[in-house]
Amino acid sequence: MFPWAWIPSFFRLTGQVHYAGSNVYDSRGSTRETSSTPFVTRAFHLFFGAFLHSTSSDAWHNLKFFLTGTPSRPTASISAVSQPSIPIVEIPPTSLIRSRKAADPFDVSPNHTSQPTRDSLPKVDTVALASPLPTPPITPVPNGPYYLIPDFIGYSPFNLRVNPHYQPLAAISEKWLDDHKVHPSPKKRAAFEACNFGLLTAMCYPDADYARFRVLCDYINCLFAFDDLTDEGGLRKDGTGTKKASDIIMNALHHPFAYQTEFRCGQVFASFWGRAVETGCAPGMQRRFLEYTDLYVQAVHEQVLNRAQGHIPTIDSFIELRRDTGALKMCFAMGEFGLNLDLPDEVFECPLIRIMEDCANDVVVLSNDIYSYNIEQAQGDTCNIIEVAMKEKGLDVQGAMDFAGGLVKDRVDLFVASKAQLPSWGPRVDADVLKYLRVCEDWMTGGFHWSLQSERYFGKNVTNVKNTLCVELLPKEPPRGQISIPDLVRAT
To answer: What confidence tens digit (pLDDT) does each residue in 40-90 have?
Structure first.
């Protein structure tokens, strides 16, 4: 049967196009040449031509509704260690995530009998989407060069919630990390704690109970401690050291009760994951978390090499890589742990679920690039969507900010539209799916709010930035030399 119900969806989604000069950049990140033929007419021909000439999933693939697929990367090596007393789910030799990332997101396999056909899905144009991005205030004007950031909080349709166990568990978790001597100096420890990662955890996992929220606080602290080593610390341009650290992290996660290392980040990863397994993790959640962490450390290694070589990728390839370097896939999986969910694999094979995960992922990491741009440009770091857009599209800083803000807006809209079209897996699973998607929503809105409350990106000026959305450019910092990490050097 012809999918008549998807015609309004197609024109709603393809209508979200930003025209600039002779090129068109659509809401899913594709750049192409314009022509004299009206866009809607060409889209109409493409849509019908795909169905008239093909009944396979390739017709949908040719529409390129969304960015998919990632380049292959080497797999982190795992050493042979005796198995722990509590079973740990191992990653299969061929990663399921890699195989499904390359698949057409709109290809509904006939083997998945619980999935409806496309013509049974609700129309997207019946969904009430959010209003356009509000215009940021332009006063007070700072003394030096400045730019305006988008008002994502004003645009977001998702409500902010905070976990009631935020304190004292956030403070307890900070002390736990400090007891493991992860911070190389008191100055680094003070800067880390000023970021208030416990608040981010509370905003992104508001429904986790006391015991699980404690594990989640430890996880987020571990993640940012490792992230700081590769983004700002001794590993930011050290490919060999990053590969060694990545292998240790993966060994620690695969064997949390048996693996021994002097690398302190490896120690805390083993600690939090061991307690997560003891608290209770569904097998599917364990498998996804380990797979996503493997993708994360591979992508971080690739990013470190890009930084060391001064390589700036294209917008499309950057977004693909950013979906892994941002660690949001891992964070969504930990959301399953926080709610003690046990979702069947077929949920994660659903094309709309994949699209929504990618949308939420992009919203968090691209908005994070906007918030973190000032300190990164001061440090000479080009691993940021703003730098990538400036190079590829010839934009200035403000133009790149507006461009990236548009990408975030489009993905918020697509997330909301896709949620209205979800199939049913039965009442119990449907309820758990909505809980999982609420985790994705909490990460989007939690990221917006935390970035404008924490001192991580704007320091003591964060309140003024939140009120005005105006950021004064920081001066460039002198180049930094390579910093040794003694505990990593000693680790084997």
So the answer is: 343 434 343 433 334 333 333 333 334 444 334 444 444 433 333 344 444
Angle between helices 427-451 and 197-204 in degrees, nearest 10: 150
Token digits of residue 462:
């964060």
β-pairing, 470-472 vs 146-148, is: antiparallel
The alpha helices in 133-185, defined as continuous H runs, are: 152-155, 166-179
- Residue 64 CA to residue 419 CA, distance in Å, equals 19
User: Strand, coil or helix: what is 388?
Assistant: helix
Long-range CB contact pairs, 404-407, < 8 A, 24+: 404/366, 404/369, 404/370, 405/133, 405/149, 405/150, 405/152, 405/370, 406/18, 406/27, 406/133, 407/27, 407/29, 407/362, 407/366
Separation CA 193–CA 278 (nearest Å): 27
The amino acid at 261: T
Question: 3-class DSSP state for residue 157?
Answer: coil
Rounded to two decimals, what is the model's pTM? Answer: 0.75
Rounded CA-CA distance 297/285 in Å is 18
Q: What's the token pair of residue 441? A: 């929503």
